Amino acid sequence: MINLNNLKVSALNLVPIREGQEDREALNDMISLAQQLEDFGYERYWIAEHHNAPNLVSSATALLIQHTLEHTQSIKVGSGGIMLPNHAPLIVAEQFGTMATLFPNRVDLGLGRAPGTDMMTASALRRDQHNGVYQFPEEVDQLQTYFGPANQQAYVRAYPAVNKNVPLYILGSSTDSAHVAARRGLPYVFAGHFAPQQMKEAIEIYKELFEPSDVLSEPYVIIGLNVIIGDTDEEAEYLATSMAQVMVSITRGKMQPVQPPTNELDQILTPRELEMAKQRIKSSLIGSESTVKQKLKDFIDYYGDIDEIMGVSYIYDQQKQYDSYQKFKHIIDAM
User: Fold this and answer.
1) N or C, which terminus of the chain has less Cβ within 10 Å?
2) pTM higher than 0.70, yes or no?
3) Rounded CA separation 14/24 (Å)
C-alpha cells in the first residue's frame, strides 16, 4: 500500500482573469484564494511570472508575492517562478531578501530558466534572452551566494539578502533543469500541469544524480498538476471544460480569459483540439474525491515517490475552486 502520509499539498496561481472581470478583480481573487488555502492547511502558495499575456495578471510577480504575504498569516508564498533570463540576480536577491526580512521564514524563490513569454517580449524585457538560458546554472549559484553568509561574498552584496537563506527551488518542464537541481542539491519542481511529456525521465534524472548539500540531504520533488475535483466525476469534467478552453486559446494565440464551463465543448473546439483537451484531462487529477484518490495512487505507482503536489486549478466559479482545493486536501489527509 502506498504511504502518502508525508505528501504535502500546495498551489500555483497564474492569476488569470475570469470572463467579465477587470484586472483588479483578478488580483482580489488571488488574495481570497491564498486566504482560503491558508485556512485549509496548504503548505505554500506560488505565483507565476508571465509577460504580454492579456488573460493573466502575473507579470510583476514579486509585487504580487508581497501583496499576498501582507494579506495572509502563515502560508509560505513564493514564485512559480521568477524567470531568471528576465532579471539580474542581484535585483532578485534584493527583492526577495527584503520580503524575507519583512516576513521571515515565509518566502520561497522558485527559479525558471525560460523567459516565460515570446522572444519579442523577452527582448523588450532588456536582458539577453539567448545567453540568459545558458547562464542559468551560474546565476543560481550567484543567488545562493547573495543569500548566504557575509564572509563568503564579494564586494557587491544584495542587502538585505545577506544571511537570509531564502530557499531556492529549481523549476523545469524538461530534463535540463533536473541536472541543475540535482548537482546543486536543491529541490526540484516539475511543471506536469502543462508539460507532462518528460516528467518521468526528469524525475529519474534528478533522483539519480542528486548530490546532498547544505540545503537538502536527499531529493525533494514537487510536481505541478491540474487538479479539479467535483462532487461527481461528471461535475469535475464539466468544470474542467474551462481549463480546456484556456489551453486551446493559448494554442490559438488568443489567450482569452477563463470562460464559464460548457456542455458544448465539441461545438467550441475542433476535433483535434477536443482530442488535445481529452489528453490533458487524462494527465490531470480530475474527478470526484474517490476518482482523484485512485488517480493519485496510480500516479505515485508510475512516477515513484514524490514529496509534494502543487495543484493548478482553472475553475470559473470561485466557490467551486475553493471546494476543489479543500477536497484535494481532504484526500491527502485521509491517506
Assistant:
1) N
2) yes
3) 14
